[in-house]
Amino acid sequence: MSLAVTAVDLTKRFGAFTAVDRVSFEVEQGEIFGYLGANGAGKSTTIRMLIGLLAPTSGTGTVAGHDIATRPDAVKASIGYMSQKFSLYLDLPVMENLLFFGAAYGLTGKALRARADELLERVDLRGQGDVTTGDLPGGLRQRLALACALVHRPGVVFLDEPTAGVDPVARRAFWKLIRELAAGGTTVFVTTHYLDEAEHCRRIGLMVDGKLVALDTPAGLKKTWVPDRVLVARGRGLGPAGARLRAAPGVRAVAPFGAALHLRVDPAALDAGAVAAALTAAGGEAVEVEETAASLEDVFLAAVARGGSGSGEGPPRATPGEGPPKVPAGAEPGKAAAP
Amino acid sequence: MTHTRLTRSLVRIGAMASKETIHILRDPRTLALALAMPVLMLFLFGYGVSVDLDRLPIAFADQDQSEASRALARAFEGSHEFHVVSHRAPAEAEALFRDGSAVAALVVPRGYQEDLLKGRRTPVQLLVDGADPVVANQVLTKADGVVRAESQRLAGAAFARLEPPLQARVWTRYNPAARSALFMVPGLSAFLLAITAVMLTALAIAGEWERGSMEQLFASPVGRLEIVLGKLLPYLVLGLVELQLVLAFGAVAFDLPVRGPGWLILALGLVFLIGMLGQGLFISVVAKNQLVATQAGALSAMLPSIILSGMLFPIENMPLPLQLLSRLIPARYLVHGLRGVLLKGNGIDVLWPDLLAMTLFAVAIVTLATRRFERKLA
After folding, report:
1. Which of A178, A185, A213, B350 could in theory staple to B346 by disulfide, Cβ–Cβ 3.0 to 4.6 A?
2. From 3.40.50.720, 3.40.47.10, 3.40.50.2000, 3.40.50.300, which CATH number describes the A3-216 domain?
3. Cβ atoms < 10 Å from Cβ of A251
4. Crossing angle, helix A138-150 and helix A109-122, to 10 degrees?
5. Reported confidence tier of residue B98, pLDDT bands at 50, 70, 90
6. pLDDT at residue A319 greater than cutoff 50
7. What is the CATH T-level fold of the domain A227-292, as seen in this structure?
8. A86: distance to nearest CA of chain B, Å?
9. What is the pLDDT, as a whole number, of residue B127?
10. What are phi and psi of A110, to 5 degrees?
11. Which of A82, A56, A222 is nearest to A141 (CA)?
């Protein structure tokens, strides 16, 4: 399988500030690659270096087989890019936006028209070609922006926070388009800070303070970063019972979550049945405990907590052999306020 | 550059230009700014803010009280340029002049008629209120015209046989009526072209930065120079249309003549516009937001083209540093060039220095702006 994007020790410094610090990764053809991180973590800067908008301070990379430093024009011609504030011309009609970007990428005449019509169809904007772009709701604008980025059939598309500020229904529809795109063989490099969206990605790179701290499939990330067993307990009198359980061996964290109780336990020491018994013994009544999956949010919080603790080890990749990362109490997933 | 590369580049420039044209056509404000403003301004400057003065109040201090002196007074009144507010004693004339009821006083000495009859040269004294130099200047010019006409009349009459008894020293050519509209239209053209060209491009390009679409363009194969050319072309056309509009309006409303070659007008306008578009581009690259770009654009276009171009104030009368500074202002050359072509019928043989100066400015500013633009990464 050929590689659509590679980065080797990609670094960008702005004065004393290191925005992207020795980031290395590979993205395969046809993959949906999610690039996750808080605002300012270096996501957009990485993309800008890859597509030739910013010169890297050091490091190298390739996009669609072209070196980003030596062949930026070839890179630009083979990618689609949707920048953070998807920058359409709002005063122009929908169709004119498509035609302009098509012509900018060298399409002309009938081929341009045909491609524009095809894309309108594809993003469900058929018949809206004459509508002024500014009159479209946000979700439709964002689909039009995607269509503009796809007008020249690029092999790789970079989408920088494409769903920021878009309602959940529109976000879902947009991700359907992204999955269709990838199914058609297009590589999608997408940044987001919506963690639920990241579940759609085949692999996720996690950026914290300019460093790529983790890179794996969503399932792999959860396994590595949240190795604890996550349990949900329901019943009566769980508050005091949970508090008593907090210091018990094998219990890593206990947090109230609405009427229920979230617990993270050492999977080697405790399971759902043992925890139910312990809670009942501690004073709980009608206790039911079931296991639940860790979310990417748990992963993200764990990663941020470790990245922010300044451990100095600067792991470019989280290696599973390293043992479970320590998760400080402050980074618990169940963040509901104590009753 | 191979043929196909050039073709592709032209396609991209064409895409930029046609997109920009749609922007302009879909924004009534831009069109209004570019097309309605010139006509409005020309109207205001041509009529309202006219520096033409007529029926200037003049006090007539007639010490001669003769038929000849009354004829001179009638000549002043009859010219419609002056209005004689007093015919009486010199003392009263003096008072009117002092308190500002009259802008000038003409003193006809005792023995005026006598001298004329004997064919002697006769001085008359004109006192002019110099507080407003524009008015003073016009009084001098117009009084001179009246006196000259009267002098010719006298010369043709029976009782003057020798050379014209009253001598004219000023001979106004090209714009004999000293009508400011004729004088102003070339200046206004420079002013209006400068403002629209600088402001519209500054706005258009700062808008791309502000909207974030500049980054989108940079990520596409459209080159920096292609962006610049594509964006400027429609404004160049708009500016030339505007110039034609101003001249046509000047011709209809003020009988503005076009004595020189039309292509030279176009050439002067073109190089001037390229310079102004470059200036707008430069401002927008530096400013990057529309508010700052508008203000910087308006200031940098308006002030020099009003003050230093010679449109209102003669450059020859400026202190030396300002005269030197005015040499850096393209509007100066356009004003001079247009006046030359329109009023004097000058050709390229006379006006080539103006054309050359504006070309140099255009090349310099476009190069500077494009360089600056190219270095700026998103």
Report:
1. B350
2. 3.40.50.300
3. 20
4. 140
5. confident
6. no
7. Alpha-Beta Plaits (3.30.70)
8. 8
9. 77
10. -65, -35
11. A82
